[in-house]
Amino acid sequence: QVQLVESGGGLVQAGGSLRLSCAASGSIGMINHMGWYRQAPGKQRELVARVFGGGSTNYSAYVKGRFTISRDNTKNTVYLQMNSLKPEDTAVYYCYFYSGVNYWGKGTLVTVSS
Asked: Does 16 have pLDDT greater than 90?
């Protein structure tokens, strides 16, 4: 059974930083891409960033230049370094791994105070 466990969320002041981690365990197969979505209250879930097997990355226009996604293939772990956080970054952040099937974490709350 595949499990994704996120960590690193919390409360931070505007301008601060947080680093999210997501570790996958179980027989996940060959990972095509992995990354992070977020969902703010009353809004739809949106892509934040993803990294592909070859190392290329995509970022939402809202976070480009402030967030950095990285991975450790040996640990089946994906990270999201979030700098210069803004109150509008407040959301539940979900990690995912895609290997022909989407696997999702349960989410970690990030709250940015003004």
From this structure: yes
Average pLDDT, the chain: 96
Give yes or no for a contact between 94 and 22, defined as CB atoms under 8 angstroms apart.
no
What is the rounded distance in angstroms from the CA atom of residue 15 to the CA atom of residue 1?
38
Both structure tokens of 60: 């939402």
Burial readout 69-102 (b: 16 or more C-beta within 10 A, e: otherwise) = bebeeeebbbbbebeebeeebbbbbbbbbbbeee
Confidence of residue 5 (pLDDT cuts 50, 70, 90): very high
pLDDT at 54 over 90: no
- Amino acid identity, residue 91? A
- CA angle (44 as vertex; 41, 111 as ends), nearest 5: 35
